[in-house]
Each structure stands twice: as structure tokens, then as C-alpha cells.
């Protein structure tokens, strides 16, 4: 990810968070008050905005500095993943393997290479720190105090941290075997903090437009059916991350068969998980944790995209840990059988095989990451690639036209917008945006031609 230091800003929230954000341009009392008292860019995330304020003081609008901070935060998060997974599983190999896969997985490119995704990296760091203190077999009052502090910082970085209390509740019930009533009582204060943050951000998420909105009028049952499909797709993205994209356009109609298959599949997974909950309590805990981290982005509370790569940043951790732990369990089962033959150097064979499997996975993932990173080099590269994958989305054509117009290629930008009106699924809001841009750009182009004449 170090190559991203040479990348530019992209016109996908970067202007609103950094380039054109007056709140991060000075340390005036008015700016500080606004950062800590107002919802900005669909989120109440004052800690994230403060990080941009500090950086703007250091290197102004040089994009390399912001990219370098993202890379550093991701490296810190990978180290925290190792500490947390090792602590929960009691196995150094699973911790190391999970952290290594997490560090290089291409599904995290959007989170690391996109400056505006800082809130996910920052909140992720505080969430992991909080969970390191919460998820202990025997935690003290000091542990809970520190966990609560990091939870507060995570909540002030991004609303995704609202799922931390349910994750801790699941750990206490499934792993520590505490009574549900006792576990729930210990999460009253964290839950109250999470509820307050949720109340602040919910209205902003549904009142500001952007992204893809066609699904926002669907009923909750319809959304749940789509979610069942998307969860399988997320698993596939972790196992085979070859067709990643900035924006996705999953089908929302004519999907009854696929929904039924998905629901049956998850029902089988749930049944098997329930059967093994006593013998392998970390399995249901890992699956429930992934689901909880995905819950805020499953459109039960309307948001403007159905799925994104960045949604997997934290949910990927327990799933990767399950994969590494599964490989280790298979090798251990072979070892038990092989104990009947004492001549085999069991420990050496075991370590070599496990290391080889993880190494092959790392090499494959690194190759995918390295090949996709240039997509985020600048706005033109990003939107040209997204246009190749999902040209039917109106927002893609609008952003691509904005990029061309900013580069002075107004005629090309106008042609893109006109084509979008006939080729894309355009709702009234997008149609109005396109018409306003066409009128303004055509007028500016005409005036420029008059001046040249």
C-alpha cells in the first residue's frame, strides 16, 4: 500500500472531507465548535475531522500525506488484529495468519487507498483497542474503563462502533458462558453511548443524497432477502476477490429463487453452528461478530449503497480467523491420525504445511492487491474502471463527467451525460442533476468558444 503515497485525491467524497472542507482549514474556535457540534458529510465524526485538521496543518493539500496516514493506520490495525485474535483464540499461529491475510487482502483497498475512508480506519483502530480490553476471559474494572474510553473514541470516529456492545454481549454469553441477564447488564453504559451516537447520525444518513438509491423504497422483507444473497457474495469476495468494484449493482427484482437458495444455505450454516456451540464456542462467536459488524450496512436503516468493499473491513477479521483456524484444525486432525506412526516428525511437518498454506494465500492476495491498486491513482482512473464494470449506474456517469470537466475536457463530459440520459436507469433526482450540469457546461463551453473567437 506504500505506493498510494503517490496517488491523488479522487472526486468521491475526498473534496467534501478534505479539499473543499472549510472546517479543516484553520484552528479557529468557530471551526472547532462546528467540528464537535455538527453532523458533517452524513456523519457525526469529530475525531475523524480532527485528524484531517491536524494533517492539513502539517502538509496542506498534498494528498501523499493523507494517504501515508491511511497506510499507517492500516498497519496499526493489522498489529491490533494479531493481538486480539491471539488473545481470543489462545493460538499465536491463528493470530499471525489472520493479521497477515487482513493486512494484504485486496478487499481492503478501498478502505486504505481512499482518503475519505479515514473514518473506517480510525474507528477500526479504536474498536480493536476496545475489544482487546473487553474480550478477556477475566476482565477487571480497569479493563472495562479503558474499553469504554476507546469505544467513545470509536463512536466519535464513525457510527459503525455501535455494534461493539452486542459483540461483547455475544462473547460473554457464547464464550465466557455468563448468564444473558448478567452479560446484558454489563453493557448498559456502552449501549447507551452507542444509542446516542445512532440517534445523531440516522437522520443525516437518510436525508442527504448520493450513491445508488433505487433500493431505498423497497420493503424490509425485500431488503432482508437481498441481504441473504449479499452475505454469500461477501463470503465469495473474501475467498475469491477478483471482481472488486467501487460501486455494485446487485439485482433487486426477479431474485426469488436465489433468495430461497441463500436462505436455505444460511439456515444450514446456522444449524451446524448451533450444533457445535458447546464444543467450539468460538465458531458461533466469530460468525455472529461478522454479522453484527455488517448489520449497520445491510440497509435495515436506509443508506445509499447496497454493498461496498469497505463494508468488509472489520467483518473480514473473524471470517479470516475461521479460515486460518479451519486449516489448522484439519492439519491437527491429520496429526492425531499420524500419531500411530511415531517415525513421522509431526511438529515440523505440521508447522511447514501450515506456513506453506498461509504463504500461498498471502502471495495470491498480494498479487490481486498490487494489480488493483492503480485503479485508485486518480479520479479519471477510478471512474473509467468503474464505468467498465457498472456503466448502467447514473452516478458513475455523473462522476466520470465531473472528472472530465475538471480536466478541461468539457465536450467529452457533456457527451457522457447525454449518453447517460438514454442508457442508464436515471431517477428524477439524477435527471435534474444531469440537466443542470448540461445547461451550465454548455453555456460555459459556448462562452469559452466566443472568447477564443
Written overview of the protein:
With 453 residues, the chain is mainly α. The chain contains 20 helices and no strands. The N and C termini lie far apart (48 Å).
Tell me briefly what this model is:
With about 450 residues, the chain is mostly helical. It has helices spanning about 15-20, 30-35, 45-60, 65-90, 90-105, 110-115, 120-135, 140-155, 165-175, 180-185, 190-205, 220-240, 255-275, 280-295, 315-340, 345-370, 380-390, 395-405, 410-425, 430-450.
SSE blueprint:
Blueprint: H1 14-19, H2 29-37, H3 46-59, H4 63-89, H5 92-104, H6 109-113, H7 118-134, H8 141-155, H9 164-174, H10 180-185, H11 188-207, H12 220-239, H13 256-275, H14 282-294, H15 316-338, H16 346-372, H17 379-389, H18 394-406, H19 410-423, H20 428-452
Helix pairs in contact: 2-3, 4-5, 4-7, 5-15, 5-16, 7-8, 8-11, 9-14, 12-13, 14-15, 15-16, 17-18, 18-19, 19-20
> If you compute it from the alpha carbons, what radius of gyration comes out, rounded to the nearest whole angstrom?
24 Å
Report the major sheet.
none
Tally of strands: 0
Order of helices and strands: HHHHHHHHHHHHHHHHHHHH
Our count of helices gives 20
Instruction: Report low-confidence residues grouped into runs of 5 or more.
Output: 340-346
Q: Name the beta content range.
A: under 5%
Secondary structure: helix percent: 55-70%
Which structural class matches the secondary elements?
mainly alpha
What gross morphology would you assign? globular
Distance between the termini: 48 Å
Name the average pLDDT: 89
Amino acid at each position: 500500500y506504500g505506493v498510494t503515497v503517490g496517488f491523488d485525491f479522487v472526486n468521491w467524497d475526498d473534496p467534501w472531507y478534505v479539499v473543499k472542507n472549510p472546517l479543516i482549514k484553520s484552528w479557529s474556535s468557530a471551526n472547532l465548535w462546528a467540528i464537535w457540534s455538527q453532523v458533517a458529510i452524513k456523519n457525526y465524526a469529530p475525531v475523524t475531522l480532527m485528524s484531517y485538521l491536524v494533517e492539513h496543518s502539517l502538509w496542506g493539500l498534498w494528498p501523499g500525506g493523507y494517504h501515508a496516514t491511511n497506510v499507517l493506520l492500516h498497519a496499526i490495525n493489522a498489529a491490533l488484529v494479531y493481538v486480539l485474535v491471539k488473545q481470543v483464540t489462545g493460538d499465536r499461529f491463528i493470530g499471525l495468519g489472520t493479521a497477515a491475510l487482513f493486512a494484504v487482502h485486496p478487499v481492503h483497498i478501498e478502505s486504505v487507498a481512499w482518503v475519505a475512508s479515514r473514518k473506517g480506519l480510525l474507528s477500526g483502530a479504536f474498536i480493536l483497542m476496545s475489544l482487546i480490553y473487553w474480550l478477556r476471559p477475566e476482565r477487571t474494572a480497569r479493563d472495562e474503563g479503558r474499553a469504554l474510553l476507546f469505544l467513545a473514541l470509536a463512536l466519535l470516529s464513525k457510527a459503525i462502533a455501535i455494534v461493539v456492545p452486542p459483540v461483547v454481549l455475544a462473547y460473554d454469553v457464547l464464550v465466557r458462558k455468563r448468564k444473558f441477564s448478567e452479560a446484558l447488564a454489563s453493557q448498559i453504559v456502552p449501549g447507551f453511548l452507542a444509542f446516542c451516537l445512532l440517534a445523531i447520525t440516522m437522520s443525516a444518513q437518510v436525508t442527504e443524497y448520493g450513491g445508488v438509491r433505487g433500493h431505498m423504497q423497497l420493503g424490509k422483507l425485500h431488503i432482508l432477502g437481498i441481504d441473504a444473497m449479499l452475505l454469500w457474495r461477501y463470503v465469495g469476495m473474501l475467498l475469491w476477490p477478483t471482481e472488486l468494484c467501487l460501486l455494485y449493482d446487485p439485482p433487486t427484482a426477479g431474485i426469488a429463487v436465489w433468495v430461497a437458495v441463500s436462505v436455505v444455505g444460511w439456515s444450514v450454516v446456522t444449524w451446524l453452528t448451533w450444533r457445535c456451540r458447546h464444543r467450539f464456542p468460538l465458531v458461533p462467536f466469530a460468525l455472529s461478530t461478522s454479522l453484527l459488524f455488517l448489520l449497520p450496512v445491510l440497509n435495515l436503516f436506509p443508506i445509499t449503497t447496497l454493498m461496498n468493499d469497505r463494508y468488509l473491513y472489520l467483518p473480514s477479521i473473524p471470517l479470516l480467523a475461521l479460515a486460518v483456524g479451519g486449516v489448522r484444525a484439519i492439519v491437527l486432525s491429520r496429526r492425531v491420525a499420524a500419531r500411530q506412526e511415531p517415525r513421522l516428525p509431526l511438529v515440523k511437518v505440521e508447522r511447514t504445511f501450515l506456513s506453506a498454506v498461509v504463504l500461498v494465500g498471502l502471495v495470491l492476495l498480494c498479487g490481486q492487491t498490487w494489480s488493483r491498486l492503480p485503479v485508485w491513482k486518480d479520479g479519471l482512473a477510478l471512474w473509467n474502471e468503474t464505468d467498465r464494470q457498472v456503466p448502467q449506474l447514473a452516478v458513475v456517469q455523473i462522476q466520470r463527467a465531473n472528472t472530465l470537466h475538471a480536466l478541461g475536457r468539457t465536450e467529452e463530459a457533456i457527451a457522457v451525460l447525454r449518453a447517460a440520459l438514454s442508457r442508464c436507469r436515471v431517477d428524477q433526482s439524477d435527471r435534474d442533476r444531469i440537466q443542470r450540469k448540461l445547461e451550465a457546461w454548455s453555456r460555459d463551453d459556448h462562452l469559452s468558444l466566443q472568447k477564443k473567437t
